Amino acid sequence: MRAAHLIGVGLTPFGRHEGASALDLMARAAQSALDDAGLERGQVDGLLCGYATTLPHLMLATLFAERFALQPRYAHSMQLGGATGAALLMLAGDLVRSGRCQRVLVVAGENRLSGQHRDNAIQTLAQVGDAQTEVPNGGSVPAYYALMASRYLHETGTTEADLAELAVLMRRHAGAHPGAQLRSPLTVADVLASKPIATPLKLADCCPISDGAAALLVSAQPGSGPRVVLRGAGQAHRHQHLSAMDSVLACGAGEAAQRALLEAGLRLEQIDHLAIYDSFTITLAMLLEEIGFAARGGSAARARAGDFGPQGALPLNLHGGLLSYGHCGVAGGMAHAVEAVTQLAGRAGARQVPRAQHALVHADGGVMSSHVSLVLLREG
Prior knowledge:
By secondary structure, this protein is α/β, with parallel strands linked by helices. It has one domain (5-115, 209-379): Peroxisomal Thiolase, Chain A, domain 1 (3-Layer(aba) Sandwich). It is built from twelve helices and eleven strands. The protein has helices at 22-37, 60-67, 84-98, 118-125, 141-156, 160-174, 188-193, 253-264, 281-291, 299-304, 321-324, 330-344, and strands at residues 5-11, 46-50, 74-78, 103-111, 196-198, 201-202, 211-219, 227-237, 273-276, 358-365, 370-379. The strands form three sheets. A five-stranded mixed beta sheet has the order 1-7-4-2-3, with helices on both faces. The protein has a four-stranded mixed beta sheet with strand order 8-11-10-9, sandwiched between helices. It has a two-stranded antiparallel sheet with strand order 5-6. Helix 2 links the parallel strand 2 (46-50) and strand 3 (74-78). It starts with a strand and ends with a strand. The model has no long low-confidence stretch (mean pLDDT 96).
């Protein structure tokens, strides 16, 4: 099988970028990725774009190609909620391995913080709920995740303080990244005392809304630096709506991860770096445990033990994740992949862990609805 090499990454700081449109932010990240790879725009023959709620254009990939002066032989945009970025990378890998494209730019960005009114954002995101039974009753994304959290706490015996440990961990990691939106120190007591949003979730259990963008270049040929390859990918889609879930303990994340590991020819025990979606603390806990990186109800214990820290057995989201680096839609999830590639390439500076060799990236969309796992390896 031909390899899919990750040869360049671009990531803007997340936070408020007053006056910058979604296309502006996408262009900044895309140029950073090209510069990182040492490529000119004319050397890109594939373009994949994530959707943008602040720019709901019917032809976003073509629009961005025009704006960024690209003339790709293949262009595509996708909507899969928070799993979109990982799914785009999966598709990019397929495109270069098949010979359809030689170099694919994957890019997403939004000005959600400065370019969208709060009411519009709530209304847009609430549409992941069932139009007949959930949306009319006032359901919102935090409410859907809070309902899952309540059931999860009941079934596992986990406490709200346990969930808070994951918010504290992400804030600690964000403190080492100058591009993170939230960098002030955070304690479990701070999380528990933060504003109630939807019981049992408090404000600090939820990711912030951000402006920002991310981009990655996937190539059939390696770049000049350390070789990072996309070795395996897998998806799982078991439901769309919360009311259609069978169990909060089996959402599809485990299936997607096993498919990616099987394709990569690796076992779960060989993974030494994690990039796991964390839109809420409950998201991170559920994903870590379903995939198998912690026992049921045990993710907080591993966090307290330091297992997910830079010196631990499974460094996790060392950029700070969605909970602290920030969340600007599709690019929020892509930032996890950017950090994983940066770590595997040995270019993370003060955040660098010495042994990063096999990384698992996992993203979910909707209400733990769409799951995509990627296995990234450092070669040589």
